[in-house]
Amino acid sequence: MNLLHRLRFPALVGSLFVLLILSSCEEELTTIGDSVIGGQPFSTGTEVYDVFAFNTDIDAVQTNKLSVYQLGNFSDPIFGKTEAQIMSQIQLSTENPSFGILSQDNEDSKDNADAAITTIDENETVTEVYLYIPYLTNSLTSDTDNDGVIDELEEADKENPDNDSDLDGVSNIQETQQGTDPLDSGSVDADSDGINDVDPKEEIIKNNFARQIDLDSIYGNKNVPFTLTVKRSTFYLRDYDPQTNFTEVEKYYSNIDYSSFALEELASVQETVKDKEILIPQEDDASTDDIDESKTFAKLSPGIRIPLDTDFFQNNIIDKEGSSELMNQSNFKEYIRGLHLSLNAGDDIMMLLDLSKASITMTYEYLFYNTNGTISDTSDDTPDEKRKKDYTFSFIGSGFTANAVNTFVNEEYPTEITNALAATEQAEKIYIKGGSGTYGKINLFSTDQAISTSIINEIKANNWIINEAKLVFYVDETASGNISEEKPTRLYLFNTETNQGVYNAFNEFSPDTDSPFGQYLNHDGFLEESSSGDKYSIRITDHINNIIQRDSANVTLGLTTTPNINIAGALTAKVNAVDQELPISSIISPLGTVLYANHPSSEDMKLKLEIHYSEAN
Q1: What would you measure as the largest C-alpha separation in the chain, in angstroms?
Q2: What is the mean pLDDT of residues 320-330?
Q3: CA–CA distance, 468 with 481 (Å, rounded to integer)
Q4: Pairing of strands 80-88, 69-76
Q5: For a surface tag, which of 165, 330, 359, 424 has the fewest beta carbons within 10 Å of its beta carbon?
Q6: How far apart are alpha carbons 151 and 156 in whole angstroms?
Q7: Residue 233 forms beta bridges with which residues?
Q8: Number of Cβ atoms within 10 Å of the Cβ of 127
């Protein structure tokens, strides 16, 4: 799942793209002119209009029912530090589970005269428990030739089939066919005889290695260890609000501190970010003589995988087999409450995590009465044979059937930002930050409705054909400290009355439908880095045409960051102690930036509305 791939549109590429669009528009308009206006020639022009910007502070945002959650600490060069914690319910994979083979009722009847010989006390014992939360990965950078090397690392493969990433004398493509690791010079099998050329004693098992995966949405120092603490929480997350007679979903906000409810520690483990698949050793299966499964691995996508306290799961899960606490999901959520996840305050790393794919795997042993297929003959029975089983718990699940909440703790903003947020006059700079941060409000033409209406009527009277309308936002490099790595990759402009984007999806150029950064390319909004100044260009042609041609209202627009322009919907936010809706796509990003509204020394970098039009001569 790609959410925050750090895509960059170089200024040259962006310019060429704009020229291509304009060129195609002009060709189309010439044809229209010939048929509609009797072949009269067109002339083109550009008009610039004022734009008025204002800053808005967000007190808190609703953070349950999100698509991804933030965890960690992020030191923004502009806004200061933000700490993000997660509290989440967990769910049973099966209601009223029977651990081992027998239900608890069957085990309890082992001494009855009518009990089967195989009815025994299974004595289930937890041996290990692992929490697993996968990192987000970048779907834009795939492994199209499936050789274990992402395309970003082997662009030359497309033109050079002999490309050899690990310099072991065997090409990536050859190693793919042999099932060896093209990034490990010690795994080579050049003659494909199944024997490792480096260590002949090491058996070659095809595709039995960890592939490198391009990770996404991890900020800060990725090379320094961080400490993840997991605690059981005693706070009960209700699914529905009792004040609405349980007809509406309960809303939980980012400014509520749940750490005081996190009591029983289940883990405090030091981890580092790794961009390779997690390999989990398997046990040998005695029934397969020709295969030694202990030399093979199960694989998980890169992520956090840490052990949890086994005694907790023994006492609260295994020993509760057959109890009312495990009877159904509702009882279980009320009983177990949830888990609280946090990173140490000194860990300078922030991750976006998809809890719908997170899980806890509990491994336990149990006694099995093995009759070896001869129930009537007990001489070959092994009533105390130990076997292993796994039981898996999910977090919110793919259908969001459970609840999780993000807590955001923002450091106090610098005085310059605080003053800007409190100001009522037009802003010189626009401060935008995701999460429970800030956003900008944009008024086109004028803040006075009568003046705006007059300008709009004048444009209508001109009978212009709007080829393109765009807003260009220049980044204040002095405020951001020239740290391009943490600049938001895309801006999101939305209608503050509907909380919907101002693009028209039916008129958009979206060649890569699998990636949010391959969506709505004509609308743009991407960061363009240039020596003359970084900027974001947002085309609002459809929005202006709706105003001019379809009499749509010239509403106030909202401006924020987004990791995924495709994320639909809005959640409640507290803004100046008043409830209002904000797009979900802005809530899930920790990033912020400062943009010029009125540049102090450059008219070219001032925020303005550019309208490129055609009209008949």
Answers
A1: 105
A2: 96
A3: 33
A4: antiparallel
A5: 424
A6: 9
A7: 262, 338
A8: 11
What kind and span of H or E run contains 71? strand 69-76
518-542 pLDDT, tens digit per residue, is 677 778 888 998 888 899 999 999 9
Q: How big is the chain by its Cα radius of gyration, in Å?
A: 30
Q: What is the C-alpha separation between 520 and 466, in angstroms, rounded?
A: 19
Which residue, chain included where needed, has tokens 């170089």? Answer: 10
pLDDT for residue 33? 36
Euclidean distance between CA atoms 124 and 180, whole angstroms: 39
Find tokens 């740290």 and name the residue: 483
Structure tokens belonging to residue 342: 């946090």
The mean pLDDT value for 377-386 works out to 88
pLDDT band at 138 (very low <50, low <70, confident <90, very high): confident
At 234 the pLDDT is: 94
Burial class (CB in 10 A: 0-12, 13-18, 19+), 376: exposed
Which helix (DSSP H) or strand (DSSP E) does residue 585 occupy?
A: helix 584-587
Please identify which residue in the block is written with the tokens 């439908």. 513
Count Cα neighbours of 430 within 13 Å in the Cβ-side half-sphere: 26
Could you tell me if 66 and 404 are in contact, meaning their C-beta atoms sit under 8 angstroms apart?
A: yes
List Cβ neighbours of 396 (8 Å cut-off, separation of 6 or more): 88, 89, 355, 356, 358, 402, 403, 404
Q: Which residues pair with 92 in a beta bridge?
A: 393
Q: How many CB atoms lie within 10 A of CB 610?
A: 16
CA distances from 591 to 433, 457, 490 (A): 6, 39, 10
Exposure string for 510-542, b = 16+ CB within 10 A, e = fewer: eeeeebbbbbbbbbbbbbbbeeebbbbbbbbbb
What is the average per-residue pLDDT within 346-351?
92
Are β-strands 404-410 and 592-596 bridged in parallel, bridged antiparallel, or unpaired? Answer: unpaired
Sequence-ordered list of residues with C-beta below 8 angstroms from that of 534, at least 6 positions apart, any chain: 474, 475, 477, 484, 487, 527, 528
Report the alpha-carbon distance of residue 56 to residue 560 in Å, rounded: 11
What's the angle, vertex CA 450, arms to CA 449 and CA 451, rounded to 5?
Answer: 90
Q: Using CA atoms, how far apart are residues 583 and 579, in angstroms rounded to an integer?
A: 13
Q: List the one residue out of 435, 443, 577, 581 whose CA is nearest residue 54.
A: 443
- Whether residue 130 has pLDDT greater than 50: yes
| pLDDT tens profile 277-301 | 999 988 877 666 666 777 888 999 9
Q: How far apart are CA 608 and CA 18, in angstroms?
A: 18
- Is residue 321 within 8 Å of 389, Cβ to Cβ? no
Q: Residue 240 and residue 172: Cα distance in Å, rounded?
A: 54
